Known about the structure:
mainly beta; Immunoglobulin-like; eleven-stranded mixed β-sheet; 10% helix; disordered C terminus; binds copper (II) ion
Amino acid sequence: MKHTARTFSYVVAFAALLVAPAAAQDVKAGDLVISQAWSRATPGGAKVAGGYVNIANKGAAADRLVGGSADVAGKFEIHEMSMNNGVMTMRPLDKGLVIEPGKTVKLAPGGYHLMLMDLKGALKQGDKVPVTLEFEKAGKVKVSFDVQGVGAQAPAGAGHSGGHDMKHTPGHSGMKK
Length: 177
Ligand SMILES: [Cu+2]
């Protein structure tokens, strides 16, 4: 009875939503579960904002975050931040970000992040910014970034404050006029 299996998977998906933290809603797309999507308010006309999200792969095969888009941003990139000789640098991941099966990849301040560039307007605390993530297998997935305060290190309710507060320097490609 195929029917039963299908019903069961809906129940599991629904249960996952119920145990999610109070912040952003989990979004399920194929084998992926996307949670805690958030960003930070942009002060004084900043043209770039970081985007952070957890991506869990519940399937048996790897998927890959290859890009995305947001109405509020002219450009969208996936970035990696790392220490080089004591200096924090970041660069776009041209081949995207692999999400291994059974793993959760956390995009967070100080590490992998999404970059909303050429912003058309300021992000304000409390805003919900619609963003479309694009995966190789799961396809296009709509999520909503909860905008936190300017110096936030984690989404509301996550109860964690690690990582560096990285400012995007003028050398960053997103700062060009
Ligand atoms: Cu960046």
